[in-house]
Amino acid sequence: MDEKPEQDRIPDTPLFDRKRSLDGYRINKMAMGLSKPENREAFRQDESAYLDRFGLTPEEKEAVMTRNWREMVRLGGNLFFILKISAVDPVRITEIGAHQAGMEHDDFLRNRLGKKV
Amino acid sequence: MAKLIGGLGTSHVPSIGAAIDKGLRDTPDWKPFFDGYIPGQDWVKEHKPDVAVVIFNDHGNSFFLDKVPTFAVGCAEEYRPVDEGWGPRAIPPFRGAVDFSWHFIDTLIENRFDPMICQEIEVDHGIQVPMELFWGRPAEWPVRVVPIFVNVIQYPIPLPSRCYEMGRVLRRAIENYPTDERFVVLGTGGLSHQLQGARAGFVNPEADRAFLNDIATDPDKLARMSREQYVEMFGSEGAELMMWLVMRGAMDRDVVVRHKHYFVPASMTGAGMIVMENEKTPSPAVAA
């Protein structure tokens, strides 16, 4: 089998396929945990220790702890799960979008979403 | 026998629920969006459905990746709002239409659809927001629900044509159901949006408007489209739109559009609403 990841046919559009689901299982499971109040508290108290509970690799930990959304998605994180991080450490979904698009927030609102800002 | 009185379509963006919770309904960002739903709410008030079959997807709240049903049908007495990370929302639990749910599951299996059967399950914004958009915020929901969960997140997701076919089976189940209850079917999700990747923030108002026309006049075309075409045209999360085909498949070929509304952007999404009745059997309003 070819080891290289298959190119997404639609540019800049990562579909949550088998590979991403397998790669991202730890990150997504960690984020899913945040739907429990006691886990949100644990994340707040000691984020690093909380991430270790789910066996995140150093690369995955780094992506989560630096709130590097683009990198989390590259590592197989799915927005619906990793969005729960924003329930503990608030950030707007449009900011997460802008980060992935590599744009300033206002530019993103204007140029992608057609908002007048 | 039970009767299908209408097919409704709507987006189910979580920010809509958050906007209601935070009292933002009448702010400049949201008022034009919410005002567009008033005719839909009036239609529901006038037509008084007894049961709402709601097709939606879970967003990593009721199901994790450990178990991913392609289709799942709720047959619970009650569906409570799930904690999506911010605590469960303060809305009343939905009452189930248990007997019809089992009847529907029987009908599905007999017609070669094999869903997961859920007797206890909490529900996320995928069903909450559509219910609030059409029924408002009652102390208790005046309608019972049948949730149909469709996996549109973990590939392989089902084919659009399969959703359409499931709608036909749903219609059969409603018309073979020996009560005089009035049913509406809600197709939810979309319209165009993309949350992941460098194309995040993609919206396609032109395609959205065309979809709101085609869902009424040319659903066969929408059912023939591939999953990739949905993603390309409506964005990676916009592929949710194929769930409207379950609703549309439950209706006759010829429908009358009673109300339609489009607004962009609701958060990061092109948001649409439609109310349709079958042309041959339009549904008169019910006296209060």
Overall description:
The complex is a heterodimer of chains A (117) and B (288). Chain A is built from ten helices and no strands. With 117 residues, chain A is mainly α. In chain A, α3 packs across α4 and α9 packs across α10. Chain B is of the alpha/beta class and 288 residues long. Chain B has one domain: LigB-like (Protocatechuate 4,5-dioxygenase, Chain B, 3-Layer(aba) Sandwich), CATH 3.40.830. Chain B contains ten helices and ten strands. An eight-stranded mixed sheet of chain B has the order 6-3-7-2-8-1-10-9, with helices on both faces. Chain B has a two-stranded antiparallel sheet with strand order 4-5. In chain B, β9 and β10 form a beta hairpin. In chain B, α4 packs across α6. The mean pLDDT of chain B is 97.
Share in helix of chain B: 25-40%
The CATH architecture of the domain at 18-90 in chain A comes to: Orthogonal Bundle
Characterize the overall form of chain A.
Answer: globular
Strand order of the largest sheet of chain B: 6-3-7-2-8-1-10-9
Q: Largest sheet of chain B, described in full?
A: 8 strands, mixed
**What share of residues are in beta strands of chain A?**
under 5%
State the secondary-structure class of chain A.
Answer: mainly alpha
Question: Largest interface, per-chain counts?
Answer: A-B, 45 and 36 residues
CATH homologous superfamily grouping of the domain at 18-90 in chain A: Dioxygenase LigAB, LigA subunit
Shape of chain B from CA axes? globular
Average pLDDT reading of chain A: 94
Which CATH class of the domain at 18-90 in chain A is shown? Mainly Alpha
Which residues of chain A sit in consecutive blocks of at least 5 with pLDDT less than 50?
1-5
Treating each run of at least 4 consecutive H or I residues as one helix, how many helices of chain B? 10
Helix content of chain A: 55-70%
Instruction: Measure the end-to-end span of chain A.
Output: 49 Å
